[in-house]
UniProtKB/TrEMBL annotation:
<feature type="compositionally biased region" description="Basic residues">
    <location>
        <begin position="132"/>
        <end position="143"/>
    </location>
</feature>
<dbReference type="InterPro" id="IPR029063">
    <property type="entry name" value="SAM-dependent_MTases_sf"/>
</dbReference>
<keyword id="KW-0489">Methyltransferase</keyword>
<keyword id="KW-0808">Transferase</keyword>
<feature type="domain" description="Polyketide synthase-like methyltransferase">
    <location>
        <begin position="157"/>
        <end position="399"/>
    </location>
</feature>
<comment type="similarity">
    <text>Belongs to the CFA/CMAS family.</text>
</comment>
<dbReference type="InterPro" id="IPR020803">
    <property type="entry name" value="MeTfrase_dom"/>
</dbReference>
<dbReference type="InterPro" id="IPR003333">
    <property type="entry name" value="CMAS"/>
</dbReference>
<keyword id="KW-0443">Lipid metabolism</keyword>
<feature type="region of interest" description="Disordered">
    <location>
        <begin position="115"/>
        <end position="145"/>
    </location>
</feature>
<keyword id="KW-0949">S-adenosyl-L-methionine</keyword>
<dbReference type="InterPro" id="IPR050723">
    <property type="entry name" value="CFA/CMAS"/>
</dbReference>
<protein>
    <submittedName>
        <fullName>Cyclopropane-fatty-acyl-phospholipid synthase family protein</fullName>
    </submittedName>
</protein>
<dbReference type="Pfam" id="PF02353">
    <property type="entry name" value="CMAS"/>
</dbReference>
C-alpha cells in the first residue's frame, strides 16, 4: 500500500472536518502532515481495526497500550493538539453523537478505512485491560477488586513513579527555586493537618491511607493517634514497614478494611485524600453519612477529591472509557458542587473549598518524568503494557487539568454541634492549628 500516511491523513480530515493537528507516520514509513508538529506513529494496521471497532478514546488507548500507536516528540503537545478531537467535540451528550463512519455521508470514507485496516476481526484487547466485572458496582467485593487492579500493581513500580514521598495524590507547590516533588508532597500533608487543626492526642481516621504517608506525618509532626484503612494488602504491608522504621507503631494502626466497616469511632478528624473518586455516585451519600457518623461533635473532615465539570444533564453519568478499562475500574468523578451539596445533606457544615487544579498538573508531570527516566526498571517491575498505560494516563490527565477539563478540590467540613460552635479558629484561612 503506497503512502499510507497520506491516505490516512486525507480520510481523517474528511471525518473530522478540520486539518489533522499532528504529523502522521504509517507502518510503511510514509509521513504526512505539518512538519513541525509532534508525530503520531501508527506501527501496525491492527491499530486501525481497533479504532473501527471501538471508535474514539478506548480504541486509541488499546492501540497505545499494545505498542501499535506511539508519539515521537512532545507527548503533552500531541495530547493537547488532539484533545479537541478526542475529548472536546462539543457540549452535546456523548451518547447522542453518531460516529462519523455511521453517517451516510461518510460511508465512502468508512469503506476506504476498512480497506486500509486489513482483515477482520479486530485483535483482542491488551491483557492489562480490566477483565469482565461481575455484580453490582460499588459493592464491597467489587470495590476491593477495583482497588486491587489499580494499587496492587507493585510497590516497586509506585516507588519509581512517586518517589520517596510515596504520596499518590496532588502535591502542593511553591515557587521557591529547587522546590522538589518531595517538598510539595510534604507541604500538602501539612496543609491537610493544619486544615484539620490536629493537636497532640487527636484521633485521626485516614480513609484510603495508601502507603501510610499521611498517617506518618500526622503522628510524627502533630502527635495524632491514627487509624489508616485501605483495601490494598500491598499498600498495607508497605505502610506498616515504614511505620515500624519510624518508631510509630504505638501511634498508628493500618488496617485492610473497607471504610464502611469501621466501627470504633468517634474520631476527632477524618482525612480522605484521593479516595472519594472510588466511591461512586450511587454510594456518595452513604459515604458522607458514614464519615459523619464516625466523627465526634465538632469533628472535622478534609475531603481531597478530583472533580469534573458539570454537564447539561446531570442525571446522565458518563464514565471515561480508557480510565475505566485500564486505570480506575468503576471510578467516577462528580462536580464539586454536587460533592458539597451531599456533604451538607449528610449533616456537615462546609467551611472551606480550595481549588488546587494547577498543582495536580505539575504533580503529574513530575510523576511522568520519574517514569520516563527509569523506564526500563518500570517495565521490569510490571509489563511494557502497564508502563505505557500509566504514562498515557498521567500525561493525558496533566493536560486535562491544564485545560480545565477536570479539577481537584480540598473541602473542609465540620460536624457542627447543635449549638452552632464549629470550634474552628476565627480566621481559619491562616490554617493555624
Amino acid at each position: 500500500m503506497a503512502n499510507a500516511a497520506l491516505r490516512l491523513t486525507t480520510l481523517a480530515e474528511e471525518l473530522l472536518g478540520a486539518p489533522l493537528p499532528v504529523r502522521l507516520r504509517a507502518w510503511d514509513g510514509s509521513e504526512s502532515g505539518p512538519p513541525d508538529a509532534p508525530t503520531l506513529i501508527i506501527r501496525n494496521r491492527r491499530a486501525l481495526r481497533r479504532l473501527l471497532w471501538k471508535p474514539g478514546e478506548l480504541g486509541l488507548a488499546r492501540g497505545w497500550v499494545a505498542g501499535e500507536i506511539d508519539v515521537e516528540g512532545d507527548l503533552y503537545a500531541a495530547l493537547d493538539r488532539l484533545a479537541g478531537f478526542i475529548w472536546e467535540r462539543g457540549d452535546d451528550d456523548p451518547e447522542d453523537r453518531v460516529h462519523p463512519l455511521l453517517d451516510p455521508r461518510m460511508r465512502s470514507v468508512g469503506r476506504k478505512l476498512v480497506e486500509i485496516a486489513g482483515p477482520w476481526p479486530p485483535p483482542p484487547p491488551p491483557p492489562e485491560e480490566t477483565r469482565r466485572r461481575r455484580g453490582t458496582s460499588h459493592t464491597k467485593r467489587r470495590d476491593k477488586q477495583a482497588i486491587s487492579h489499580h494499587y496492587d500493581v507493585g510497590n516497586d513500580f509506585y516507588e519509581l513513579v512517586l518517589g520517596p514521598s510515596m504520596v499518590y495524590s496532588c502535591a502542593y507547590w511553591d515557587d521557591t527555586p529547587g522546590f522538589t516533588l518531595e517538598d510539595a508532597q510534604r507541604d500538602k500533608l501539612d496543609l491537610v493537618c493544619r486544615k484539620l487543626a490536629l493537636r497532640e492526642g487527636d484521633r485521626l481516621l485516614d480513609v484510603g491511607c495508601g502507603w501510610g504517608s499521611m498517617a506518618i506525618h500526622a503522628a510524627r509532626e502533630y502527635g495524632a493517634r491514627v487509624v489508616g484503612v485501605t483495601l490494598s494488602r500491598e499498600q498495607a504491608a508497605f505502610a506498616r514497614k515504614r511505620i515500624a522504621e519510624e518508631g510509630l507503631t504505638d501511634r498508628i494502626e493500618i488496617r485492610v478494611q473497607d471504610y464502611r466497616d469501621v466501627r470504633d469511632g468517634p474520631f476527632d478528624a477524618i482525612s480522605s485524600i484521593g479516595m472519594a473518586e472510588h466511591v461512586g455516585s450511587v454510594r456518595y451519600r452513604e459515604y458522607a453519612d458514614d464519615l459523619h457518623a464516625l466523627l465526634k461533635e465538632g469533628g472535622r473532615l478534609l475531603n481531597h477529591q478530583i472533580a469534573r465539570r458539570p454537564e447539561k444533564d446531570e442525571d446522565q453519568y458518563h464514565i471515561d472509557e480508557f480510565i475505566d478499562a485500564y486505570v480506575f475500574p468503576d471510578g467516577e468523578l462528580a462536580p464539586v458542587g454536587r460533592t458539597v451539596s451531599i456533604l451538607e445533606e449528610a449533616g456537615f457544615e462546609v467551611r472551606d473549598v480550595e481549588s488546587i487544579r494547577e498543582h495536580y498538573a505539575l504533580t503529574l508531570r513530575r510523576w511522568v518524568a520519574n517514569l520516563e527516566s527509569r523506564w526500563a526498571e518500570a517495565v521490569r517491575a510490571t509489563s511494557p503494557g502497564r508502563a505505557r498505560v500509566w504514562r498515557l494516563y498521567m500525561a493525558a490527565s496533566a493536560v486535562s487539568f491544564e485545560r480545565n477539563r477536570i479539577g481537584v478540590n480540598q473541602v473542609l467540613a465540620v460536624k457542627t454541634p447543635e449549638g452552632g460552635a464549629s470550634g474552628l479558629p476565627a480566621r481559619s484561612r491562616t490554617w493555624k492549628g
